[in-house]
Amino acid sequence: MPDIYHRISSQREQMSKSQKKIANFIIEHPNQAPFLNVEGLANAADVSDATIVRFAAFMGYRGFPEMQLALQNAMQEQLNATERFKHPTEEAQSEDQDLYAIFLRDQANIQETMEAIDMQAFHAAADTVINSKRIFILANRSAVSVADLLHYHLSFIFENVEIVEPSDRAIDQISTIREDDALIALSFVRYSNHTLRLFQMAKDRGAKAIAITDGLSSPLLTAADYSFMASSKSPSLTHSLTAPISLIHAFIALIGKEKAADVKKRLRTIEEAWRDFNVFSNFKPPSA
């Protein structure tokens, strides 16, 4: 991830209201901000010229020109990383190439996600889930499918996992959260206001807040105790959920390893129930 965006993310909590306006504009307009002068950036972010200069110093740069160069370098790095993943209609020579572009972008998403993980925080978040009295999972819109998968697998490990319903009842569920509970929220571009409000509500009630999202502009970051980025870029019309799914698989595997004895015991009980109800097909393919 480009260094200037790391700086913005790590220092956001210490920013003034005006500084946050500048930071938000830079994050939301990565292709425009690098080429604006002091006056142009000030007008775009609705702050004074002096505030822009102070912001550059606050971010650790010797002046605005150095910060502008950092923005331009960050944009160039991003272009180099994504140049080969342009929209299929721009360069595709065939339908097969369109499909290959999607597979290649998914591979890159997983690689970017893996490289961005703070493993110490990843282990700490897993320990938080393990030691929580109850585990809530929150998502809306496209993130619901990933949340369902997380809920399904965590339910094999714990008996205290609850998915927050995407309805008005969600407020009732979140209102029961206490300090010894954990909430895992998933939200990807475009971010759901409903998810954000409930996430903040859980945080205000003292719950440990874990965010799985896809960008430094994600509003979940301001309330999260632990946050993990899963790239969702795609050359197609929809965002990719491949990396978010890969991330939760890794998270489940880490928790499962820590809770191996409990998992084996619980799976034995579930397997017995499956056999009693004849859940799975006994079909055997005919021999050749």
TrEMBL record:
What residue stretches are annotated with the SIS domain? 125-257
GO molecular function, one example?
A: DNA binding
UniProt domain HTH rpiR-type: residue ranges: 2-78
Give GO BP annotations, semicolon-separated: carbohydrate derivative metabolic process
Superkingdom assignment: Bacteria
Q: Which keywords describe this protein according to UniProt?
A: DNA-binding, Transcription, Transcription regulation
* Protein name per UniProt: RpiR family transcriptional regulator
Which Pfam families did the record assign?
HTH_6, SIS
UniProt keyword Transcription regulation, yes or no: yes
InterPro entries with a match to the protein in the record: Homeodomain-like_sf (IPR009057), HTH_RpiR (IPR000281), RpiR-like (IPR047640), RpiR-like_SIS (IPR035472), SIS_dom (IPR001347), SIS_dom_sf (IPR046348), WH-like_DNA-bd_sf (IPR036388)
Query: Gene3D superfamilies, alphabetically?
Result: Glucose-6-phosphate isomerase like protein, domain 1, Winged helix-like DNA-binding domain superfamily/Winged helix DNA-binding domain
